């Protein structure tokens, strides 16, 4: 196999892993923001509603 | 001590998650943006300016990914080890948030280091893998990262998980100097350090400059991901607290 294959494969793998990290961070953040907004819209966070 | 007078209040200020959220929210786009710009400049230099190596030929281009990934693997482990101390010794409220956010990033960079190293090894050494001290200790590093991630999932209660993970992290920290000095302590196929040496780097500036730019770009990317991960982790804990509150309220209503 030519050296080009090894070089290209290295850059592709690195790009995919980094893209995965960024995507995971963005999706996880969005899920938490939505869940939090949902809980707060139901008034869960307000102390007056507790007990 | 005057140093304490400045550092102590600063740490206390940052210990407040609300303060951290506002500060990191402002910093994040700048760090991420700077990482993207430097990554662009670095990649341009690697592909269009840096020369081919007289022995490795164009395969040296793999080094510009492999070396920064290896540094970040160790860097994120050191972030985790200092966060572990923060959790166990000072019970800093953000310490285990930082540790939890750092683990998957460190693991990912360790994986990049191993894969790119292997892809460089095949055309250069004639083999994808050798059980030499540097390669083996780096594989152990990945396994420690994965062990830490698994332990977090195994313990439900966040404070107990944080303590257990912190102990494992500090025990695993013994591997950091082993990775770094393995090439000096043992006779390895992997070459010894050529950038951080007492007698200065042994690489020509036409390759050293793009390598350092790539290293700074990778570091800023790592820091941006770490800040983003910490922010999400803080939100996740708020979600957890509110979910428990809601469950308690529903219980009280049902009773």
TrEMBL record, chain A:
Source organism superkingdom: Bacteria
Compartments where found: Cell inner membrane
Entry keyword set: Cell inner membrane, Cell membrane, Cytochrome c-type biogenesis, Membrane, Transmembrane, Transmembrane helix, Transport
TM annotation in the entry: 6-27
Record bears the keyword Transmembrane helix: yes
Topology of the protein relative to the lipid bilayer: Single-pass membrane protein
Main location: membrane
Family statement drawn from the similarity comment of this UniProt entry: Belongs to the CcmD/CycX/HelD family.
Function, in words: Required for the export of heme to the periplasm for the biogenesis of c-type cytochromes.
Protein name in the entry: Heme exporter protein D
